Backbone:
């Protein structure tokens, strides 16, 4: 079934209102969540709305958080999210980073006691209208085995970097530090299809193509897949995200990161509070005049877009191109949702006596 | 043949003196260069000394640079390296980042008009003794084809991140944003061996195992190897390094990055000056008390080191472990150099009437 942006927005907004969010928080959370659907990251949009509701029911999400700065310097801050929705905490923290960048050139904010924040790119992109480079990352439920290990120690820990250009659209990279994100497995599960080799391993660390392997104690693999192809680099990247997001802020890190599914018990002896995020904003004119920078970004983008394509490929893409193209299509033609997601949303509607 | 640290240090120092470096610059350059040999990154150490000398002979390296800050804010700076050795320019710029972090919590420095800086990790590690997180990256000669392309557009563009711990050794990640670094190909060339699939492609973009393929218009592949295994993520990472290092600073970027081999002509219509680097320093106590942070880093490191290993593997490694272990061995047993490197160094010795 296909829904318009406005339909999904109204429904999602009313669900966030139903769990007790203020109008302002419900608007912020809705915009952040649906940004995923619009940009084609179907795994992180309204498909997760029931998951957020269940976390609220389990008492793990606070719908009326007192989000605040607990420590700061001119260019840094630690924010405590008071167990709020990451979708609400993240824009607050990113705004702190932007404000600090206005004052001293850059701003860097590590966040504790928060929850999943939707797609990282949405938050990083907040910097663009200020002629700033934006960065966003987060740790997440442990599903990834480090190189040489069979134990799940890290989340898919995404990194997003948004860089403004002049006439060209912005450069927006947003990627999990694994070979494949968990959402890709979910899509294959629905189709009853196998994964390519190099995405996952089984519980003994052997190669596997089973899209359901995470339910059998298997693990996702770090970007690079195996040692020979650089998985130690993906493992290092995921670790850096974990440390910047959670060790710097006082959140729970590594295998102790709180799980997203509300039915999974919380880890014992957690070394910090909730999930962690990390945000950065750099004013480009803290380095060189903004116009000059953005004109060179145009030149960079045009040069890379015109790189000679390999046979069978029409053109070389710039990070952010596919999501932006999808956004144009979906704002016009609507957002398709698979049956299982529609059924989930109907259940949520019934729970709160809403229409869907 | 095996050489002691002191032997290589004295010789390298006298070579840098011979091209006209001051005592201080020669010491800095020597320490940086040999850090690679000591840590086992043989491709980036004295094996490159003749390359640096040739760049000086070609007039591309200035042995007496006036390195200076050309723009700054409280947390940022742009440094012009005056075409100096990257080995000298990089520690200058990293020190600027550290000084800014002392004042406002973090410091971020983009560098133009510079040259290759040896191993990124050496510069990032300067932050550790100040209880800071250090970061270093650089762009480099274009050898890497973006996903879907057959054109070499990016360098192997490494990223290093050094994070202090308390009783545990520091976390030090230092990696090329390609599946395999160029140095790995050089090692296979000497052995007349093939590469694994997924490291390189031929000039038509087809898969290849030819370790000499870069001499035949082939290209290195971004981390992830192919689209299905996330090469678009490695391509994005390499691009971010290029933009932070060169577009922010006014250096030459992408396919216009100056080539390391002095016999390769400079690209036409270069959009900036020389190579670019980017450095960062974050005071950990700009986020939480340093002792607290470092104790949690100890806990993080111990937990990851004790992750269940896969069959056939003794233990899980922490980024920086292999290089630190190598350093212990080589400081004791010396640094082995292959014959071709020894021959190269003898030639340099003759050129400057030095003993080797």
Residues:
């Amino acid at each position: 079934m296909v829904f318009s942006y406005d339909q999904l927005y109204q429904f999602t907004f009313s669900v966030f209102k139903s769990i007790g969010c203020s109008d302002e928080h419900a608007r912020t959370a809705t915009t952040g969540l649906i940004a995923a659907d619009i940009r084609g990251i179907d795994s992180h949009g309204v498909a997760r709305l029931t998951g957020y509701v269940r976390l609220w029911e389990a008492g793990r999400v606070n719908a009326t958080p007192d989000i605040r700065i607990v420590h700061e310097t001119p260019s840094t801050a630690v924010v405590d999210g008071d167990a709020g929705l990451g979708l609400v905490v993240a824009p607050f923290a990113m705004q702190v980073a932007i404000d600090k960048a206005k004052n001293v050139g850059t701003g860097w904010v590590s966040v504790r006691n928060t929850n999943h924040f939707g797609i990282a790119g949405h938050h990083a992109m907040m910097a663009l209208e200020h002629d700033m480079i934006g960065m966003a990352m987060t740790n997440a439920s442990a599903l990834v085995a480090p190189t040489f290990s069979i134990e799940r120690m890290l989340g898919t820990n995404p990194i997003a970097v948004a860089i403004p250009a002049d006439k060209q659209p912005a450069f927006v990279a947003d990627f999990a530090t694994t070979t494949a994100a968990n959402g890709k497995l979910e899509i294959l599960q629905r189709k009853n299809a196998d994964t390519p080799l190099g995405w996952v391993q089984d519980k003994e660390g052997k190669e596997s193509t089973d899209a359901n392997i995470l339910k059998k104690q298997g693990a996702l693999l770090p970007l690079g897949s195996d040692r020979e192809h650089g998985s130690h680099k993906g493992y290092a990247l995921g670790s850096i995200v974990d440390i910047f997001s959670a060790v710097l802020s006082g959140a729970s890190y590594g295998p102790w990161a709180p799980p997203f599914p509300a039915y999974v018990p919380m880890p014992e002896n957690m070394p910090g509070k909730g999930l962690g995020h990390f945000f950065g904003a750099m004013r480009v004119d803290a380095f060189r005049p903004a116009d000059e920078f953005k004109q060179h970004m145009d030149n960079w983008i045009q040069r890379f877009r015109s790189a000679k394509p390999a046979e069978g490929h029409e053109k070389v893409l710039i990070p952010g191109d596919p999501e932006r193209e999808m956004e144009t299509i979906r704002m016009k033609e609507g957002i398709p949702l698979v049956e299982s997601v529609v059924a989930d949303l109907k259940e949520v509607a019934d729970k709160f006596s809403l229409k869907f």
Summary: Chain B touches chain A through 85 residues (CB under 8 Å). Chain B has three domains: 1-64+323-356, 65-175+224-319, 180-220. The domain at 65-175+224-319 of chain B is CATH 3.30.1370.60 (Ribosomal Protein S8; Chain: A, domain 1).
